[in-house]
Amino acid sequence: QGYALDPRGRRAWIEAYRAAGLIDRMLGAYDNARLVGRLSIMPFGQFFGGRPVPAGGIGAVVVSPEYRSRGLGTALLDAAVKRMRDRGEVVSPLGPATMWVYRKCGWEIAGDQSVRVVPTVDLDRLDFGPYQERPATERDHDAMRKLYINAALARPGMIARPAWMWADHLRSEPHRYVYVVEERGRLV
Description:
Largest sheet: 4 strands, antiparallel
Number of helices: 6
Mean pLDDT: 89
Oligomer: single chain
């Protein structure tokens, strides 16, 4: 309800969490046996100083509409901070939909993310020199991971993706496209 997900996809979503070993990373708020709020703490790292630092990413924070403004979201976030501290996760990146609730629980804006929109017709006019793009295949995945890590080591704040996150980024499905760029046959 909080994310307008198709109810038919719930089982697949839960199974994906279970397969990735993330079920124990979910926290719930209950009224008797009824789940009325939840969040997930996603385990990964974030690169700082040329190395990954343990991180707990907060995600999927929801409280049923009739239970909002009762402090459940704050209680869930407080419990998440305690769990992350216990696990040694020293940073907690998130992409907040609204900042005030997270700020009140101790988070602050510490970076930015930019999105550029370019009409694809404009790309046709660019000279890409020796670079050639093509659809990625499973054979490219190891090289893609290595290239990403080499870039991330030099860029503070980039995510140190664990296997479950790579699987999500690289999975094939209809209408989803992953490309690589090569220079003279070598992935760059």
